[in-house]
Specification:
Elements lengths: L7 E3 L1 H9 L3 E2 L11 H12 L7 E6 L8 E2 L2 E2 L9 E6 L1 H12 L2 E4 L2 E4 L4 E3 L11 E2 L8 E3 H6 L2 H7 L4 H13 L2 E7 L3 H11 L8 H9 L8 H13 L8 H13 L4 H5 L3 H24 L15 H11 L5 H15 L8 H16 L14 H5 L8 H12 L15 H4 L7 E3 L3 H4 L11 E3 L2 H8 L4 H11 L3 H6 L16 H20 L4
Parallel strand pairs: 2-6, 3-12
Antiparallel strand pairs: 1-12, 3-6, 4-5, 7-8, 9-10, 9-11, 13-14
């Protein structure tokens, strides 16, 4: 049974001294210092009046976490080697406020510099008044002193400049220096227990993310390893190739699967710091290999087209183990896995558990072992024909991936259609063209069918097509594009006449194109049958 920790008092100067000497740290999984001068003044007014301000909860440990190194322009020293450090689990904003005021610091908040010396004590007010004694603004009609001067300046300076208030000033100084700040120290708790405590008492209303926890846990100054900085660098590397939307949780899952073949939250929290550091470069390399494979083999040019971000994890695992491109047999098995996962809502629930199971399938694929699937794949053309288009739907994304595979060409000149994340986020993006424009169709119940979507240039969609009928706008492209028939094949529209385009026959278009879509999807999921 864990013994219940009891509060113990600490004095103001002692707390500040502990921060100055590096014994109290604010872990980087805490939020940044956000209290403005008004909140800080209210806190200080409560202290000078003897009101309780809550308890500081500190975690005492020899672990070294990622922590704030600079507060209000003041560099905070490292904890002396071999000594324990106390990380603030609750009370960061209050403790930081006390520190910046006593140090008289300036804090940059966005484009505004806040000077914490500019907090005043109204010497003409009394301690028992309902109105605050400490305020963020100087009262012109009353005698005021900055709290910084009150706490920091010599008695001789105070006596010279405030001779009529010296007794009151001394009383206020004593109130600060003798105030008992309630603290609870949790000694030698494991990090998952400390984080659980932080999560339960966190009053910001923002849940601590697993990545924030792991960033703090894996920080290593000697090895120059900072998970947040490493992830930021990975994002920058992927941005240039259109895959900058890979979430940090997916990267953690890749790390965990590579290390322990499972990636539940519990498994990730148990990962050893040194193991993570040692496997980081190999994991980044495997992620890049997987993304390169998505781009070259499946022709998926941007991460927003991926049906699930989770798909990156098993493919990264494949390249982490194999460290080479798949051979023809492995390629077929990977393709079947990709399309069955994408067309079955495979990762719509229990993602972490399924990724652990799929790790075993990836090993089987590496060993060229074919195994059956219990994924319920929908390949009914009548269902697809009536499928409502949405960029948040994984099934729609799978069909968009199919469209992207054929490297769609511009209706106008047969040039490549450029697809990137900036245009692919929303369903009304100009990269998504309703071949039969919705404005033309009116209130047709199937106006937004996924089968009616083609991938085009944003300029083309806006300027050249608009609300025109297909026969009208396609006639103009026929006159300009000598290769129009070939162009349309890249959009899975084999024949404009056979697909009902020239007669503006929407139902025929849906029927023929849904047949074509199903035909191509079947090739991919029945490749080994």
């Amino acid at each position: 049974m864990v013994k219940q920790p009891k509060p113990q008092p600490e004095k103001y100067n002692d707390l500040i001294t502990y921060i100055r000497r590096g014994y109290i740290k604010i872990p980087k999984f805490q939020r940044d210092f956000v209290w403005g001068i008004e909140d800080t003044a209210k806190l200080l007014d409560s202290i000078i009046k003897g009101y309780p301000i809550g308890t500081f909860i500190l975690w005492k440990t020899r672990e070294r976490l990622r922590s704030i190194k600079n507060l209000g322009g003041a560099d905070l020293p490292p904890t002396p080697e071999g000594d324990s450090v106390q990380y603030v689990l609750d009370g960061q904003q209050r403790l930081a406020s006390l520190f910046v005021v006593l140090e008289g610091l300036q804090v940059n908040k966005g484009n505004k510099i806040i000077d914490y010396k500019e907090i005043y004590v109204d010497l003409d007010k009394n301690i028992n008044d309902d109105e605050p004694i400490i305020t963020p603004e100087k009262t012109e009609e009353n005698k005021c002193i900055t709290l910084y001067d009150l706490l920091s300046n010599k008695v001789s300076y105070l006596a010279k400049n405030y001779p009529d208030y010296i007794d009151k000033i001394q009383d206020y100084r004593d109130r600060f220096t003798t105030y008992d700040f309630s603290t609870i120290v949790l000694p030698d708790y494991p990090i998952d227990a400390a984080v659980e405590i932080f999560t339960r008492i966190n009053t910001t209303g923002t849940e601590l993310t697993l990545f924030e926890i792991m960033s703090a846990k894996t920080y290593d100054e000697i090895k120059n390893f900072d998970l947040q900085e490493k992830y930021k660098q990975l994002q920058e590397d992927l941005e240039s190739i259109g895959y900058d939307t890979i979430p940090s949780s997916t990267v953690l899952q890749c790390l965990s699967l590579n290390l322990v073949k499972e990636c539940t939250r519990k498994a990730i929290l148990k990962l050893n710091k040194d193991d993570i550091i040692n496997v980081w470069d190999g994991t980044v390399e495997s992620i890049k290999y997987a993304i390169d494979y998505f781009r070259t083999f499946y022709h998926i040019p941007a991460s927003r087209l991926l049906p699930y971000n989770a798909l990156l994890v098993p493919f990264s695992y494949f390249f982490f183990i194999k460290k080479d491109k798949p051979d023809s047999e492995q390629e077929k098995l990977l393709q079947e896995y990709f399309w069955r996962s994408s067309l079955s809502y495979h990762f719509s629930s229990a993602v972490e558990t399924k990724l652990g199971q799929d790790a075993k399938r990836i090993v089987q694929i590496i060993n060229r072992e074919k195994r059956g699937y219990d994924f319920n794949v929908l390949l009914d053309k009548d269902e697809i024909k009536n499928w409502w288009f949405s960029t948040g739907d994984s099934y729609c994304k799978a069909i968009l991936c199919l469209f992207a595979y054929f490297n769609p060409k511009s209706f106008d000149n047969n040039g490549d259609v450029i697809l990137d994340n900036s245009w692919l986020k929303q369903s009304n993006s100009r990269n998504y063209h309703h071949f039969f424009p919705r404005a033309y169709l009116g209130k047709n119940p199937n106006e937004n069918s996924i089968v009616n979507i083609t991938l085009v240039d944003d300029y083309l969609n806006k300027r050249e097509i608009g609300a025109k009928s297909p026969s009208e706008y396609m006639q103009k492209f026929k006159e300009r594009n000598l290769y129009l028939d070939e162009t349309m094949k890249t959009h899975l529209i084999d024949d404009l006449d056979d697909f009902g385009v020239w007669e503006n026959y929407y139902e025929k278009f849906l029927e023929k194109r849904s047949e074509k879509i199903v035909e191509e999807l079947r090739k991919r999921i029945e490749i080994l049958c």
